[in-house]
Amino acid sequence: MDLEDSVSIESRFAGYVDGLVQVIGHADRAGPLRDYCMGLVMPCERKSVEPMAALTAPERVAAQHQSLLHFVGQSAWSDEEVLRKVRELVLPAIERHGPVEAWIIDDTSFPKQGRHSVGVTRQYCGERGKTDNCQVAVTLSIANHAVSLPIAHRLYLPREWACDAARRRKAGVPKTIKFAAKTDIALAQIEAACAAGIARGVVLMDHGYGSSLELRTGVSALALNYIAAINPQTSVWAPAVKPLPPKPWSGRGGKPSQRLRRDGQHRPCSVKELALCLPQKAWRAIRWREGTSDWLSSRFARVRVRPARGDDRMAERRPEEWLLIEWPPGESEPTNYWLSNLPADIRFQRFVDLCKLRWRIERDYQELKQEVGLGHYEGRGWRGFHHHATLCIAAYGFLISERETIPPSGPSPATFLSKLGVPSGYKPRGSAIAA
Q1: What's the pTM?
Q2: Which tens digit of pLDDT belongs to each residue from 139-159?
Q3: Is 17 helix (H, G, I), strand (E, B) or coil?
């Protein structure tokens, strides 16, 4: 490792953390902030508080453990302010690769034992691919084709937790936090991003979020475009089919009907039924990005449709949207469906390219968990869960900012920092030398 490179990265890391110190509040939090961030980017099999204390202050582990534990679990600094500062520091590095193209909504799970860690219950655990004991957090990330960064992270509090006053009190759940569906949390994150003036992108959602008509409607109301994965049974009006107008008023009693009608010839169909009826010429082979060994490609069709759910209680049809369908060669039926309010004139290639940009969030989760220990927090409280996640995102932001400074065949920025060890001039808060 080149000494000059290592010193330069160390210096930039110190400057990056100094930027976070500006929004952390009390001056006595600056030391623990630096120590915690250093622990997250240095080599350590487990990024929980005790191992990081041993790594950052080997001569005073017990005192350092208490310092970091209080900082992450009890200190009342603002997650929102720190994440805002991370975004401010990292956005220039993201935009060097091009403008923000997408906002990606998703969630990530953390398997847990017992029932006392905040938000833990039996629910779908994506990490294990089944229902299991876990916590789930909803996230919003900004992305382009080169890099992405989470900008919001909020624990989903299941109804059984939201309604249990004793467990809420013990875990320190704020009184302002009520039960909210994951889609409601996602919409609140999107609204906050709009209010913050973040560069807008197409909102990308998997079917867990995209199947929510309410969420799609809320995103549209914010003048945002979206590409939302949906279930095969989602009902739509095919291009040549429409509902009957409201029943004519007889003029005798009551009010005129304001509801669209359906009959045997005027009925919506599922997106799967529509896909299976498309002619061969509707399908087109499209590739979207280069994989590890070859270009990724598949077969797609797109059709202009109108979502049908609940419109028999409405006076007018919903706006026309794109239905995008993926049917890979060799598969017996289509595998993926999306609804999108992107403009009618969007190029087919561009449409697919944006749709497939969701893959970046999977890489984020993988690196956040493997590189900086997002899932390693062992505390049980609300504040500690969110503080740890915020600091992991901060550490991750530095690492992705540094990637372009390292040759493609070279080690990661984390590797450079790890070989430094604890710098000779680095004085953990409370050390005898610092005192």
Answers
A1: 0.89
A2: 999 999 999 999 999 999 999
A3: helix
